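User: quick one, fold this
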Amino acid sequence: MKLRCIAVDDESMARKMLEENIRQIPFLELVRSCKNAFEAMEALQAHEVDLMFLDIQMPGMAGTKFLQSLREKPMAILVTAYSNYAVESYDLDVIDYLMKPVSLERFTKASYKALDEHRKKQALLNPVSVPPSQSNAIGDHPGFFFVNVEYSLVKIAVNEITHIEGMKDYVKIYLTSMRKPVLTKSTLKGIEEKLPLQGFLRVHKSFIVNLAKVESIRSHQIKIGDFEIPVSEGNMEDLLKSLNHSR
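Assistant:
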């Protein structure tokens, strides 16, 4: 799934940063870069646009006024150097509100919000062609996600995950590239929603495993490296089916 988007900013450098960030996100497709609201209007008339990255303070017409003027609005993420528009942005029902300079991590998080919103709308409009069970298939997944770790966003490469352990309000993510697991405040369900549907399986109320990393199974125990992970009685059949399917 691709989100067709436009970048709207009167400052050349800011526009280039938006363009570069958009290129870093696999599910974003830049269809036009615009320096003001009037060029943005032309882009909306010429292209099917799912998402706008929209500056607020621009000559001729402010981004907020431009958004208010549209009868049919694509999703919008406001990008600005000023915090005093935050309240107004909520009234406009935008996806997110980004403060310049925007880090790639923050940009990525906002983009995921837009992707989730787009999927919800598509599921409502066409529940047959976009079933919920396929909303996070491998083909749509960028191969990474971010988690909060001590007030920072840490990038997690999906193919490096061996297994994930839930611990009440925290989750440990074990990676092949790190000796210690990444500890983040989340639920196991919250992390599970960030994973592609294929390739990972919840084998226990406290554990998710990467099926590609499973070395052996014995007496309801999965061996991955030095770890032995329990498998619930009710999940053993699903585990065996998933492993056979992944061959």
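User: anything notable?
Assistant: The helical segments are 12-24, 37-46, 63-69, 86-91, 104-125, 188-192, 236-245.
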